[in-house]
Batch of 4 targets.
Target 1
Amino acid sequence: MPLSKLNPVYIAGTGSYLPEKILSNAELEKMVDTSDEWIVSRTGIKARRIAAEHESTSDMASIAAQRALDDAGITAEEVDLIIVGTITPDMSFPATACYVQQKLGAHNAVAYDISAACSGFLYAMNIATAQIGAGLIKNALIIGAEKLSSILDWTDRNTCVLFGDGAGAAVLRPGNESTGRVHATRIGTDGRQTGILKVPNSGTATLDPEVQPVEGNATGTIYMAGREVFRHAVTAMKESALGVIADAGWKTEDVARVIPHQANLRIIDAIRERLNLPKERMFVNLDKYGNTSAAAIAIALDEANKTKSIVRGDKVVLVVFGAGLTWAAAAVEW
Ligand code: UT7
């Protein structure tokens, strides 16, 4: 059912949190056989944040969430639903969202996690928008939070230079506000591609023969077939962006800002070319934070909001891609 048939939903506030420690490309040069030149030219990433040892995913998520609540002007007690998108939960159970509920004092909320890798935040937006739109709940807190530094093989140059830690959040509410209206969301999955991006040997599946012999892939760390992921990412993000633009009844050229997944500047450029949009319409902050998976879009949305890169009336497209494979997009009128 199109969102236009449901009650209107808007983004009432955003927040984010980045850990203090900055890990530069120059520092990575001392850890693995890489160079600032390779990382910048192949990905656009210059630095990433690394959480402190004592800092958990729910710690980062709770700070970002409280900032989003403050921005929305509502209290934790008013929240009906908390969804955390993460692949680096505090522990396998209870859900990281339960810890967030506890830390915020959001005792009236239902809280659970979504495992959709990088797409987790926009999966959460899709679910929360549907529940609010159907009148089942009022206020939802959607969060993307990751401590990816905890699942990286710091001897594998193919992956360790790409990722970072952080959290972002948004508050969704019912209402016909003129700013932040969610006009469309789409989510998608292709389980045939589970093999190209995963954390092998981290769960109940027997040891993964595809990955075990590969030098440099420690048990329980990220494995990625980069080129294949790249190819799928471009197609899926282009199609889901065009999908929500059509669902919202917009024209592509009217989109003021695309907030794409912050994985690789070359992927962002490839999508921009396919959408035929000028460079300045793409929001980019991966140079500072690298790829923070489920947190990336949420952090970028908050930064775009707070720095006025998106302003009232802007047609904004959020679009993401991740392991699963999963993808998602949203069309929001700011
Ligand atoms: O958020 C989840 C979604 N993830 C993504 O969207 C990531 C998608 N993939 C990518 O962004 C790119 O494929 C990467 C950035 C991961 C890799 O870039 P690439 O241009 O596809 O490089 P490649 O994997 O084909 O490797 C090219 C060369 C290889 O050397 P040889 O075989 O040509 O001698 C690699 O060993 O670059 C080498 N290489 C590196 N060299 C220096 C790989 N990583 C590094 C490194 N430093 N960190």
Target 2
Amino acid sequence: MTMQLWTHCRIASLAAHVAQPYGLIDDAALVTEGSTIAWVGLRQQLPQALERQCTVRHDASGALVTPGLIDCHTHLVYGGDRAQEFEMRLTGASYEDIARAGGGIASTVRATRAASRAELERSSARRLTQLIGEGVTTIEIKSGYGLALEHERKCLTVARGLARTHPVDVCTTFLGAHAVPPEFAGRTDDYVDAVLRMLPALQAEGLVDAVDGFCECIAFNVPQMERIFVAAKALGLPVKLHAEQLSDSGGAQLASRYQALSCDHLEWLSDEGAQAMAAAGTVAVLLPGAFYFLRETRLPPIGLLRRLGVPMAISTDCNPGSSPCTSLLLMLNMACTLFRLTPEEALAGVTRNAAAALGLADRGVLAAGQRADFVLWDVQHPAQLCYALGSNPRIQTVFKGQVA
Ligand code: DI6
Ligand code: FE
């Protein structure tokens, strides 16, 4: 297998065993063997025997190297957009007015159902390309705008297909329990039955890596979500939850009882919910784009999560309604400015902790044995990635050991 060597770089490894902030290694060297990292450390400690085996050598010209970025919570595949709804709200229409006029999630469900697979591929690829252009090498993509078997299948198939046409890994999540579709209006329990029929069918087709839901008074309650989690666990699928976004519904406690990979949003998370997450090892996925776009004022309890040692991840939540965002770098800035995370916490949130939120142990830090997914940046210090909003200092991405 080809061995490649990168030198003349500063590495923010994010690895816990490197004592410096960000796991920084100055004047570093990195060796890959095929799609895996074989060695990372100080240039002068690189064993000569290993150096001799490297047939391809790269001069990183002083670049900063970080792990490939991981966007661990997106609704990337959907039809249409909601720009007109955005415009209506800015000219005085209330959310209820818009919903009565057929807007909101329902309008995206209509547009997604009407869209062909090719149309969804095209619009999703455009968004994905923007994220990849900022150094994203792994992305989670949820269904949840089809809300019927054929349309959920169409969206998950598009999500899977994107990984075949782009230098990125895709983790798919079945979010059938995102909203109650119009044909089930007023019959939420019947729709949960339908979700329970969709799940094994989609899993059998290899389209589902995890199961999510929207636990909220306007969506699915705790007993309804629990039925879905029981079914997911019976199929051996990990679960996660949109929890405590608009109110405290006790979703975090429920999710923790099912060893959820993550609870996401969490503006209304209670002490009990945070403690349950800490005990279960559940990651807190914070979504500053949705907080910003919905002009929320209640912050997720960052101090509490920190005190309890709950790992925090950061993601775009890319979706047409609450976070039409395709910049994970902007989310780094917003995590710091809006949520007061330190730049080091924010960067860990799109690398190490985002990998944990997806249950992936083979990426998110730069260390021997990990996947060779990394990004070269034209900055001196990792804090610059969080600080300079609207800039994209990416030089190059290496995906599975290949310059992408
Ligand atoms: N929470 C959100 O913020 C999005 N979904 C969810 O469960 C909103 C999705 C939309 O408005 O289209
Ligand atoms: Fe979401």
Target 3
Amino acid sequence: YGRAPAKVAVSSRVKPILPGAAIGVLGSGQLGRMFAIAARQMGYRVHTFSPETDTPTGQVSDIEIAASYDDLDAVRRFAQGVQAVTFEFENVSAACVEAAAGFVPVRPGGAVLHATQNRLREKGFLAQNGIPTTEFAAVRRLGDLPAATRRIGFPAIMKSAGSGYDGKGQAKVASMEEAGKAFINCSGQEMILEGFVDFELEFSVVVARGVDGQFAHWGTIQNRHKHHILDLSFAPAQMSAAVDSRAIECSRALADKLDLVGVLCVEFFLTRSGEILVNELAPRPHNSGHLTINASRTSQFEQQLRAVCGLPLGSTEFVAAAAMANLLGDLWQNGEPNWPAACALPDVKLHLYGKIEPRLERKMGHLTALAGTAESAARTVLLAREKLLRVE
Ligand code: AMP
């Protein structure tokens, strides 16, 4: 299985940014690191911008700039040193993106960030475009709760509308009282109340769209979360071909509507009645797409680079079924994990992000396994992770 990207003639209007050029990355985590590795493989230079130093991205970049995202003069200087800017961290302000866009293309553009960095705007955008999503209501003040809970019912999930990830700022609530507490715990920030979906499974579709509209996708990837954090992904997802193609069409429509240039991950719930609901959008490579590094002819990071630079997209064909297991800081609780034990499995690949401090729930790395089927890849990758905890 696997796919070649949709053929679109490379327009002569779009002048590609060629190898040798410097690409700027806003943000400096593992997504930027894997992007930088792909970019340097193809002969590009990478400059990263974030408030920290010795970061996962900085460690593999040509230049690491440490400044606040609000220091617009520093952002302007950064943009003047590169030929295009992309991001791996979505919570940069509109002012920061505008400052960079005054000098070079920012891909994906500021409008995509604006639509997706706030859950209320994102859900509003989905609803306006007829994309099925969870029931939701805005909770901007405590007084909004009675009407919101009447409409959504219980159980429900309260989520902070801005800057939430991996379940941070989220609470499942079963009564008005609990919803009120969740609002107060979030220090009065704008929130969204979502209907709780008793889903059959969760999956995502990672897509890429080029400067000239060329489209590519890696099919459906099934996801399992633990404590709201992604734990295991495997591809292809175990779903019917009909659901598969509905989800891909929906993701393609979203990429077109957003006029995306870059990579977009669409996270879905498959309900018990066979409906697909969009949970969340991320306009960048995504944790569930990490398995594409080893399993696909073109990884999500190389594809981001190609899209950002105006190059043709690469083939997204899979060379095997695959599974990915996250390695959180929790694994270090009893000392350094047993890396040789996991590496002893021949079809397993180790990815570590260069983070020094293994804090609980911190994403430190991941393992990928390739196999004949997604099920068998998932078994292997979980076994490999288990072996990390074994003293031999
Ligand atoms: P999010 O940060 O919105 O992606 O949420 C993280 C995880 O929490 C999701 O992947 C689901 O496992 C769970 N979750 C979020 N929203 C809902 C919902 N409305 N109903 C059921 N589970 C949810």
Target 4
Amino acid sequence: MHKLFITGGAGFIGSAFVRLILAEISSCEITNFDALTYAGNLDNLQGLDESRHRFVHGDIADREAVLNALEEGTDAIINFAAESHVDRSIASAHEFLRTNILGTQVLLDAARERHVPRFVQISTDEVMGSLPEDENAFFTEDSPLAPNNPYAASKAAAEHMVNAAHHTYGLDTVITRCGNNYGPRQFPEKFIPLILSNALEDQSIPLYGDGRNVRDWIYVEDHCRAIMRVFERGRSGEVYNIGARNERRNIDVVKAILDALGKPHELIHHVKDRLGHDRRYAIDPSKVEGDLDWQPVETWESGLEKTIRWYAENGAWIQRARSGAYRDYYTRQYGTEISAR
Ligand code: NAD
Ligand code: DAU
């Protein structure tokens, strides 16, 4: 029996992890601790087996709330909770420092105090900065931490605190660093769900700069399966890079989605570039493939098809996610109303 304490389990990746684990591992029980920020969504948790899933509304930076929710016999804390959107961190970094750094520290302290046997930190490839374009260079576990934006800097700081807890107190920790996830239930501020939700309504799609920035895309369930491997078999104190060897230029991602939907490329609208926009991310996943015997299941084509189908069939979810607060954010970010062409 695994008893897991998942934070951020109402968000995109956390909810995919909770769904997958409950569906595939019958001996697993989950406490899902989430503050339900703008990115947290209880719709993402509909239809789960409630006898093995306990949702607790709480903030990871709140020590008392964490300790109250953390049950005896918990096998691991898996920390997905974060402020996760780069553009929001560029507009204001404060919440990123509070949740991503202080929140992680509260969880580390709680793990020690309650003798939780393993701590899994969900980090990101962005902590390693940006790679040169058109060069045979990849992020490995030995790449130096060189974050370029406030979100990435906060996640790098969190990694340092995780490593400090391991080195100083002997806490059993593992860190995963994944690239760009895509799949159902991703909040439509992120690139692929933004493309989909705008294109489905024939609205223009904002493409930053020249559109040639490269991201390394992975289907969310493949990331979740890799996290489970790292939890079960990862070596204490180590980092595991996770990726599906799937680099794509942004412009090619938009075109692929528009083509699949039968929408015109004229919907693409070049806008001012993101400040400090990282040029290229590309992950060498040899370690997780070789040491932990993990491989992605989905290809880019199969994952994208599933993702497109989900958004096409879940208009009500998109409408609820694109609430008044989202519309305000959109206007601030893009200087235009959501429906403008
Ligand atoms: P998300 O923004 O969709 O979800 C974040 C979740 O965390 C939400 O449910 C939110 O309510 C919750 N949360 C935020 N602040 C909290 C707090 N103080 N206390 C408790 N809960 C809080 O994010 P995501 O895309 O699912 O990312 C999950 C994790 O994976 C993050 O740690 C992120 O850094 C990491 N990651 C994301 C990607 C990606 O492509 N999305 C890639 C690599 C790593
Ligand atoms: O690499 C992992 C990271 O991927 C995660 O750690 C982050 O949590 C996640 O948000 C993501 O960061 P990115 O900044 O790469 O993702 P985003 O979806 O915001 O943007 C993907 C690319 O698309 C990036 O080059 C910027 C571009 N973009 C994005 C938006 C929102 C646009 O061109 N237009 C847009 O409107």
